[in-house]
Amino acid sequence: MVRGLNRLCLALYGFPRPTVAAVNGHAVAGGMILLLGCDHRIAAEGKARFGLTEGQVGVAFPMGALEIAREELGLAASRWMLGAGTVDGPAALADGALDEIVPAEEVLPRALERARKLATHPSEAYGAIKTQLRGPALDRIRHAAEKGDPVEGGWLGPDLAGRVAALLGKG
Questions:
Q1: Can you give 98-141 as a three-state secondary structure string?
Q2: Could you say which of 33, 77, 108, 162 is the most buried, measured as most Cβ atoms within 10 Å of its Cβ?
Q3: What are the residue ranges spanned by the domains of the chain?
Q4: pTM, two decimal places
Q5: Which parts of the chain have pLDDT scores under 50?
């Protein structure tokens, strides 16, 4: 499972074309990593929560998630990852986890508009710049996807399902 997650992170974060996320609800744990892996992130106004809550269920971050969070959240990554809580949209925007917050009915049109704008950039240069910016992180993710990730044992342990169920109030 962890190697699969790392391959997904590698494919998304290293994709040589523009990626734009349109979020109309919560983005927590893996959903937050997928959001952060995109080049531009737009969320709907409202009560949605954003967070990296893996610590609440007792699992460390796979390399792909770790690298994406560290690269995209900068100094705020420690607070997000160690705190394992959630924040509202304005706080996510302030920390750089979101690029825009718009009314719910404008999320998809705005995301399509932004994607069309980014798609006008010369694709070869766009991909090369992404590689320049993310190269070292992508190398670390690639290594974990191919050779194994130190956190695999914690993710595959027999008590993970119980910890998740307890967190959800079903344990």
A1: CCEEECHHHHHHHHHHHHHHHHCCCHHHHHHHHHHHHHHHHHHH
A2: 33
A3: 2-163
A4: 0.90
A5: 171
